[in-house]
């Protein structure tokens, strides 16, 4: 929306952008984070001793593929004016494959794994393209606020989809409930697709180049590839951006590992049924709504880096609870503490990175952001899976996350604030 004032939160493009956060949260909650994660481990993979490693391999592989593709696809979006088409295509593919998870039953390890990998890859790429729109619809002084509102509204979407699916999930993984349980994947896919439609319509042509009739062609592909290589070779010209990405590498590694393995951890170490885990997840979401929005307001007022560093201290507390806590109340303390920072850290980091970019290269650099996040996320889940399998203790695997959070915090303190000019769009 270059050059056009965005005077109200009710501007259709802003609302459509926020609503996409509302829609995609259903996928991340009910597929990789909780419902399908537990289903794959216990039913598809049989729940044997190596099931943790199998699931961690699928998660790691999907994130690695997405990470390496994201900068190239982001560059293709920028160079060819194809961002909206690629964003829409990836979202639709993810929704379709998520719906097809209904057909995955016990023993379908390979087919179920492939469907999940491709769905997770397209989801991750769609998100990196979606995040790049933030640079175009809000100025730096309001970016943390809008990013956090989107994340908070996303929690509402996750909660609503959870409510819709709960009657199907409450029977757990009992044999006579598996058909109903799998139906939750189809509902999640439909939810994601339906509430993405406003973004498909309203975000079209938000950048002037996207109004052109650029077509996918070999020359555009080669130019996009050349731009990515040029950016890597000239990394010193973007030193602060790449320093931020290194910090994000470690922070994202730890957060994604917590997200992808909390459900399995609670089931294994506290004997929690799926329904109780979903309730705890709901608690995280409910607490996260106001906390994420407050973090965004504070980020715009007192500094985004300060807010992020404060949330990392809380993350250390979450990990320590998981490593040492054994009392039955610990899962609830953990859920409450995680709710304070799960959305806050990621939303403010998203706005902090957006502030550092120019509009013409936003999709490419958010692709590098995805690369840092996804490739780093290979190491965390894989390390967790290897340690948990080798030692028989998931707690020891989680203890490694303290190093990731600490390293990310130290590097982030060295990142200089963005000096980029505020662009003309106002929210």
From TrEMBL:
<feature type="transmembrane region" description="Helical">
    <location>
        <begin position="86"/>
        <end position="104"/>
    </location>
</feature>
<dbReference type="InterPro" id="IPR050495">
    <property type="entry name" value="ATG22/LtaA_families"/>
</dbReference>
<feature type="transmembrane region" description="Helical">
    <location>
        <begin position="365"/>
        <end position="390"/>
    </location>
</feature>
<protein>
    <submittedName>
        <fullName>D-galactonate transporter</fullName>
    </submittedName>
</protein>
<dbReference type="GO" id="GO:0022857">
    <property type="term" value="F:transmembrane transporter activity"/>
</dbReference>
<feature type="transmembrane region" description="Helical">
    <location>
        <begin position="189"/>
        <end position="207"/>
    </location>
</feature>
<feature type="transmembrane region" description="Helical">
    <location>
        <begin position="14"/>
        <end position="41"/>
    </location>
</feature>
<feature type="transmembrane region" description="Helical">
    <location>
        <begin position="110"/>
        <end position="130"/>
    </location>
</feature>
<feature type="domain" description="Major facilitator superfamily (MFS) profile">
    <location>
        <begin position="9"/>
        <end position="420"/>
    </location>
</feature>
<dbReference type="Pfam" id="PF11700">
    <property type="entry name" value="ATG22"/>
</dbReference>
<keyword id="KW-1133">Transmembrane helix</keyword>
<feature type="transmembrane region" description="Helical">
    <location>
        <begin position="151"/>
        <end position="169"/>
    </location>
</feature>
<feature type="transmembrane region" description="Helical">
    <location>
        <begin position="306"/>
        <end position="324"/>
    </location>
</feature>
<keyword id="KW-0472">Membrane</keyword>
<feature type="transmembrane region" description="Helical">
    <location>
        <begin position="330"/>
        <end position="353"/>
    </location>
</feature>
<dbReference type="InterPro" id="IPR024671">
    <property type="entry name" value="Atg22-like"/>
</dbReference>
<feature type="transmembrane region" description="Helical">
    <location>
        <begin position="277"/>
        <end position="299"/>
    </location>
</feature>
<dbReference type="InterPro" id="IPR036259">
    <property type="entry name" value="MFS_trans_sf"/>
</dbReference>
<keyword id="KW-0812">Transmembrane</keyword>
<keyword id="KW-0813">Transport</keyword>
<feature type="transmembrane region" description="Helical">
    <location>
        <begin position="244"/>
        <end position="265"/>
    </location>
</feature>
<dbReference type="GO" id="GO:0012505">
    <property type="term" value="C:endomembrane system"/>
</dbReference>
<dbReference type="InterPro" id="IPR020846">
    <property type="entry name" value="MFS_dom"/>
</dbReference>
<feature type="transmembrane region" description="Helical">
    <location>
        <begin position="396"/>
        <end position="415"/>
    </location>
</feature>
<feature type="transmembrane region" description="Helical">
    <location>
        <begin position="53"/>
        <end position="74"/>
    </location>
</feature>
